[in-house]
Amino acid sequence: MLSFDTFKDQVADGTVDTVLVCLVDMQGRLMGKRFHAKHFVNGAWEETHCCNYLLATDLAMATPDGYASTSWERGYGDYVMKPDLSTLRPVPWLDCTVMVMCDVLDHHTHEDVSHSPRAILKKQVNRLKAMGYDAMCATELEFFLFAKSFDEIRRSGFRDLEPISGYNEDYNILQTTREEHVMRPIRNHLWDAGLPIENSKGEAETGQEELNIKYAAAMDTAEFHTIAKHAIKEIAEQQGHAVTFLPKWSHEKVGSSSHVHQSLWQDGKPAFFDESDELGMSALMKNYMAGLLKYAPDYTAFMAPYINSYKRFMKGTFAPTRIIWSVDNRTAGYRLCGDGTKAIRVECRIPGSDMNPYLAMAGMLAAGIAGIEEGLELQAPTRGDVYQGDTGMIPGTLRDAAAALKGSAMLRKALGDDVVDHYVRAAEVEIEDFDRVVTDYEIARGFERA
């Protein structure tokens, strides 16, 4: 991280000449502007502006109707981007560049825009702080690395995709050595940018990678995840390769997840730990986990925000299919990790690699808070192969998840009606766009035989 004084010194001596001034959009991407560093120092550090459509688009940056916050009728005005100078950090994979994250504020009131991802997570973190707890989280980033570049793949029509390796490389040192020209700069550049990188490894498929970042406060974790995902794409491109965070790019391959580990702390100590409990779970943790389970359908749309997200939930692929918890069991939607130790935590295995971490973690924290406030009782853990059974199923489609989000009284209370309605509309836009498109699958299956 950079102090503002150190940053100004670097601008003065020419070490830094560019500032990436970024917000996080609905899809979890970095959007913003590149400032000349001297102009930023001279005044832009206080605020800049952006079009308010940046929080009302789809993946392709279209401007669909149906949002209450902005529209053609209302003229697409401005939001204020307010740099959070505590987030200043170097961007080592780009020359002479630093980055700062922004809060998104209403142009007239200068209050947080309620449906901005940063504001949504901040609200839940502050609710926990008012209860005396700090939310600690970690995310795992899984993605596929391809032999060809983004441009080559795009020109081919995204066909004949070739992963960088030819076999399952889970924990495989030989194969990941061949990929070090990409993975080493990812680890090292992100570490130098101030992210507490732990490790990278091969994952359980051809060309699949995983990057792990040390746990931190929830807001920091969301920022680490977002910056890392952005950097992985840029660094891979610098090395001539494409990556994808699409959860299921081939029906013949396993999918990519983004597991979220979470725990609550109080006065610097893990509040989920109770050494007198058989598993080491405090009563607080049991209430929290019961909330996660009860309300999982409500926030599934935040963990799996696109049509493709639901293709990943298949038996026998290490992706969950049921809203069930178990002890150190990778077939369950929620896995208890570190049982019997102060490192005890819950790992939610439902989110895909396409999640927006701010939204997914906000939904989880809201559900956990509800579990605490309602004093929910946690049922006994499930044992064995959790794929065997048909109860407590994860919503099977985005349409089902959007309906659950729309009807969630808990999330409407925790996030606000305007926020829930905004992201319900985002899900509807994805569904409407997919429904109008004729796919290669339909043509190949029915062109002659229908």
Automatic annotation (TrEMBL):
GS beta-grasp domain location: 14-109
Pfam families: Gln-synt_C
Ranges of residues in domain GS catalytic: 117-450
Keyword DNA-binding: no
Keywords from the named record: ATP-binding, Ligase, Nitrogen fixation, Nucleotide-binding
Required cofactor(s): Mg(2+)
Family per record: Belongs to the glutamine synthetase family.
Record's function text: Catalyzes the ATP-dependent biosynthesis of glutamine from glutamate and ammonia.
Name by which UniProt lists this protein: Glutamine synthetase family protein
Biological source species: Leisingera daeponensis
Organismal lineage: Bacteria, Pseudomonadati, Pseudomonadota, Alphaproteobacteria, Rhodobacterales
